[in-house]
Predict the 3D structure of the following.
Amino acid sequence: TFTKYKINSKEEESNSEEVEGLEATQLTYAQAPIVQDGGNWLYEHADGEKRKVPSTWTFPMVSLRDIYVLWNCRNENQKIVPMKSFTSKDVSFLQKGSKNLAEVRGMMNVISKEAASKGFEIKEVMTTTEALNAFSAGVGALNIPLLTPQGKARDIARTKWSSASRFKQLPSETEKAAETAC
């Protein structure tokens, strides 16, 4: 099973737990883990490989805040480890799985590095509250424009991670040249 975290202002289900505005809605998958290896649950796939996610798992297309929680938090009930422990092999059965993992890893590392520079402890496994606090402290490091092209305010925390990866402001050519000259 897998838990998808999402932001929602209304109560939806009795199996949801609200933590500081974050609501965890459970999505249940039929496959149960077969092996526990050093605290990591593994699922056997049709190709014989053991992975940290069930064969029915799909890459979460959720907001930046939600993916940061999934990245850092373990779910004992759902038997899914934090996504930051995933390897390419764990998601290789998905179309674009390894590419998505690499994109998310890059953004999550930027957020975590910034949060750590502000005094937040980035643990191997975090609580939801710790992850949300670290996210709030570090998300600005992605340098995502605060305004849309239409001039509307952008809620970066609610922006889907896949959109955020396109919005990131990369260093300009001038800044790149200055860095390489040093």
Summary: Helices lie at 64-72, 88-91, 97-117, 128-138, 161-167, 173-181. The two ends are 50 Å apart (CA to CA). Residues 1-21, 23-29, 170-178 have pLDDT under 50 and may be disordered.
